[in-house]
Amino acid sequence: MALSRADARSLDAQDPLAPFRSRFIEQPDDVIAYLDGNSLGRPLKAIDQTWNTLATQVWSQRLIRGWTDDADGGNWLELPEIVGDELAAAALGAAAGQTVIADSTTVNFYKAMRAAVNLRPGRKKIIVDRENFPTNRYIAESVASDLGLELVWLRPDLATGVSADDVAAVLDDDVAVVTLSHIAYRSGFLADMSAITALAHRHGALVVWDLCHSVGSFPITLDADDVDFAVGCTYKFVGAGPGAPAFSYVNRRHHADLNQPIWGWLGRADSFEMEQGYRPAAGIRSMISGTPQIPGILAVREGARVIGEAGIDTIRAKAVRLGEMVISLVDEWLGPQGYRLGSPRDSDQRGAHVSILRHDARQLNDALIGAGVIGDFRAPDAIRLGLSPLANSYEEVWSALEVIRDLDRAEYPGQDRPAEYFDRAE
Ligand SMILES: Cc1ncc(COP(=O)(O)O)c(C=O)c1O
Ligand SMILES: Nc1c(O)cccc1C(=O)C[C@H](N)C(=O)O
Fold first, then answer.
1. For residue 425, is pLDDT > 60?
2. Tens digit of each residue's pLDDT (9 = 90 or more) over 339-365
3. Tens digit of pLDDT for each residue in 134-173?
4. Which of 190, 205, 218, 285 could share a disulfide with 281, CB 3.0–4.6 Å?
5. How far apart are CA 217 and CA 387, in angstroms?
6. Ligand nearest to the Cα of 105, by number
7. Looking at the domain 5-43+311-421, which fold is it?
8. CA–centroid distance for 311 within its chain
9. SUPFAM superfamilies in the record, alphabetically (predicted)?
10. For the residues 93-105, what does the mean pLDDT come to?
11. Per-residue pLDDT reduced to its tens digit, 370-408
12. CA of 212 to the centre of ligand 1 (A)
């Protein structure tokens, strides 16, 4: 028996995270459910205040001195490292001094991949998977092409993702880097970061993890797992806003030999001496290239603060419970309408979104947005339902599934559905 609306309400009544919903700026009245926080999180009221303070009290008053004045526990030039440490403590399981907020995930991923390969001279292979986010696949191609390396492609089943066994099957001592997404962008499959990292290390390879879909939704343990490099975005579950700067983590044991490819002035030692020749700054600072994006970094600080306050374990527990609710409703209501589950059924293998598959997903998703349920379509046949434990209520998610069910009834009344309805176009 699927949960009823009353059941969803009762889950909300017991939800320790329910008070956090009022931290967000209200969504428009015509939105029944916003299930796209795994693409762009909703804004916190605190960010509105932070940006207002930045413009009216800090930027306008300190002017250029903001870069070097010691206020807010540091100056703007230091904020990438300061807020990097704050995010690391709240959401990455990483000790201070190994994380910076800078650039986009794409750019950070490029830097991390090149830096990792530089640490393994003479090795000729990079392992990457076909289900990885496009930017990761393209950057891996670009790095391999520039450096004359071979790409070894994993081809995971969409719903089962990349296992340690898949990696073990192609790993040898000629592999420089294994790169994977911790949570797959389409299926939500959760990779075993600890096991795969240990496996890569046994062959002398390094790992570069993309944490875009896990940061802020899943307890990450970068130091404990001895991860080498990790990158991820802050506009999803961290909620720092469209185009907010990403983060880059490099394990301390690589700092002495770290050599990333974009040699900008702010990653140099003694930047303001403006000297000839590049000499990397000490530590994680050398992952920076150019001027930090201060409004975005301050928004990351607010996101990290709220995650720290809520507690990442509590966030994860609610993500699991929301996912289970969605899957039970999919089974009961949507299976008979020709939808299939496009995510792992087992919560231990699933992140904070659930994908449902149907051949006409693109049109369905457009219709859903029109009906006030905002998820997203991912080619070729997936509707992703992103579950944001801080912003979504159980009832909101339940209502979304009800809308999906009823939309389909309206479109295809009765039991006589066209045959192609059930045949997934592969
Ligand atoms: C897994 C993953 N990696 C990388 C990116 C790309 O990040 P960006 O476009 O911010 O560089 C995204 C989302 O866009 C993503 O989901
Ligand atoms: N970064 C995005 C953008 O600039 C426009 C639209 C969507 C996005 C996304 O974040 C996509 C997202 N990373 C995904 O998992 O599909």
1. no
2. 999 999 999 999 999 999 999 999 999
3. 999 999 999 999 999 999 999 877 767 899 999 999 999 9
4. 285
5. 9
6. 1
7. Aspartate Aminotransferase, domain 1 (3.90.1150)
8. 17
9. PLP-dependent transferases (SSF53383)
10. 98
11. 999 999 999 999 999 999 999 999 999 999 999 999 987
12. 6
CA of 358 to the centre of ligand 2 (A): 21
- Ligand 2 site residues (CB inside 6 A) read 39, 185, 212
Residue nearest to atom 1 of ligand 2 (CA): 39
Q: What is the pLDDT of residue 423?
A: 36
Interval between CA 36 and ligand 1 midpoint (Å)? 14
Beta-strand (E) ranges in 110-166?
125-129, 150-154
Mean pLDDT over residues 221-230, rounded? 98
Q: Which protein residues touch ligand 1 with a CB less than 6 Å away? A: 104-106, 133, 135-136, 181, 185, 210, 212-213, 233
Question: What pLDDT, on a 0 to 100 scale, did the predictor assign at position 157?
Answer: 77
| Confidence (pLDDT) at 225 | 98
pLDDT of residue 419: 40
Mutate to test the pocket of ligand 2, among 38, 40, 355 (most ligand atoms within 8 A of CB): 40
The predicted pLDDT at position 411 comes to 59
Angle at 320 between CA 25 and CA 353, to 5 degrees: 65
Question: What residue's CA is closest to ligand 2, atom 9?
Answer: 39
Q: Put residue 344 in one of left, alpha, beta given phi > 0 → left and psi -120 to 50 → alpha.
A: beta
Distances (CA, A) of 108 to 25, 210, 370: 30, 10, 36
The ligand that comes nearest to the alpha carbon of residue 186 is: 2
Strands 382-386 and 376-378: antiparallel
User: How far is CA 317 from each of CA 1, 23, 259, 273, rounded to the nearest angstrom?
Assistant: 22, 20, 39, 50
Task: Report the CATH fold assignment for 72-309.
Answer: Aspartate Aminotransferase; domain 2 (3.40.640)
Residue 147 and residue 116 in contact, taking contact as beta carbons nearer than 8 Å: no
Q: What ipTM goes with this model? A: 0.97
Residues with catalytic annotation? 133, 210, 235-236, 384
CA 319, chain centre distance (Å): 14
The rounded Å distance from CA 233 to ligand 2 centre is 10
Does residue 80 have a cis bond before it (omega within 30 degrees)?
Answer: no
